C-alpha cells in the first residue's frame, strides 16, 4: 500500500508541476500578445523624443530685452527673464525659461503653465506618459519567477492573482 501511495503522490506532484508550467506559459503568451498589440497601436516615446517635439513646435531662443519696457516673469520659477537667458515662447505668446518649461511639460499634461493651452497634441503626451507608467508600474518577468517558485513550493498560487 505504501508504494501505491508514493506512486500517487508522485503523480500528484508531476501533475501540479505540469499544470503550473502550462499556466505560466499561457500567462507569458497573453502578456506578449497584449504587449505587441499595444506597442504597434501606440508606440511609447522617450523623454528625448518628447523634448525634441517640444523644441520643434516651440523653438528655444535667447531672451532680448530690446526696447521692451515691461519686464517678463517666468511663471514656473517666478523670477524675471534676464537678457541672454535661454527661453521658450509658446504659441499662446507666453514666455518661460527653456529649462523651467521643459521640466513643467514633463510633469503632467503638456499645457502652458499660465493659460493651459495645449503645447503638444494630446496623443503624444499620452504616449509619453504611458511609457513612464510602463517603467514605473510595468510588471517584469521577476514576478513570474516569483510566482513560479511559490507555486512549485506548494503555497497557494491563487493568492498571487
Ligand atoms: Zn524660470
Ligand atoms: Zn499660455
UniProtKB/TrEMBL annotation:
SUPFAM superfamilies the record matches: RING/U-box (SSF57850)
Membrane-traversing stretches: 12-30
Alphabetical keyword list: Membrane, Metal-binding, Transmembrane, Transmembrane helix, Zinc, Zinc-finger
InterPro entries for the chain: Znf_RING (IPR001841), Znf_RING/FYVE/PHD (IPR013083)
Xref: SMART domains: RING (SM00184)
Keyword flag Transmembrane helix: yes
Domain RING-type residue range list: 74-116
Protein's UniProt keywords contain Transcription regulation: no
Name of one Pfam family that matches: zf-RING_2
Any one Gene Ontology molecular-function term assigned to this protein's record: zinc ion binding
PANTHER family referenced in this protein's UniProt entry, alphabetically: RING-TYPE DOMAIN-CONTAINING PROTEIN
Protein name (database record): RING-type domain-containing protein
Organism the protein comes from: Ilex paraguariensis (yerba mate)
